[in-house]
Amino acid sequence: MHSRRAGRQGQAAFEYIVTYGWAILAAIIAIGALSYFGFISPSNLIPNRCNFGKQLECQDYQIQNDGTGAVVRLNFRNNFGKPIIILDVNMVEDSNGVTGNHPFDAADQVYIAAGATNETVVYLDPQYARLSGEKQGVNLMVNFTRADIPSAPEHTISGYVFTVVSE
To answer: What CA dihedral angle connects 99, 71, 129 and 88, to 10 degrees?
Structure first.
């Protein structure tokens, strides 16, 4: 009688484990299917952001795919307390350094008065196009100088833009 009772307890434990095993397996399959079809994407869970520090603050930002490359639109607010001129913007693609150099000519340089905002538009080369509809990031280095001092030295601020790429 003792062995029969132990057998029933073993069977109950086995059924308990199998029932929960099927439930866990079904949950894993459901999560895998949702992830595979793009309903659960880690990048969608990460918030949009644009960070160049407190002194050169992003008021608005956008990454667009124009069919040939990417266009990054940044609306910077100058919190330096002095007027600045953005001389150029360089893209940093990897840890080895700058791989896309996008200098502005004199007409493209952006003047931003102290406390004011102005839009900076950067056209990236076709090889740096981003996929529309997905969250993508771009590392940028902004070279600027003070506008109120002739022959002022150049300064560099690096930052990161991460948002959904639009058409």
So the answer is: -10
Altogether, the residues listed in the chain come to a count of 167
What pTM did the predictor assign?
0.69
Cα gap 146→55, rounded to integer Å: 13
CATH of residue 86's domain is 2.60.40.1470
Domain that residue 160 falls in: 49-166
Say if residue 81 is in the same domain as residue 119.
yes
- pLDDT per residue, tens digit, the chain (167 aa), is 455 666 677 788 888 888 899 999 999 999 888 878 777 766 667 889 999 999 999 999 998 887 777 888 999 999 999 999 998 888 877 554 445 555 566 777 899 999 999 998 888 777 776 777 888 888 899 999 999 988 899 999 999 998 888 88
Alpha helices of 37-140 — where are they, by DSSP H?
A: 42-45
| Residue 85 and residue 122 in one domain | yes
Residue 4 CB contacts under 8 Å (≥ 6 apart), including other chains: none
Distance CA 102, CA 125 (A): 9
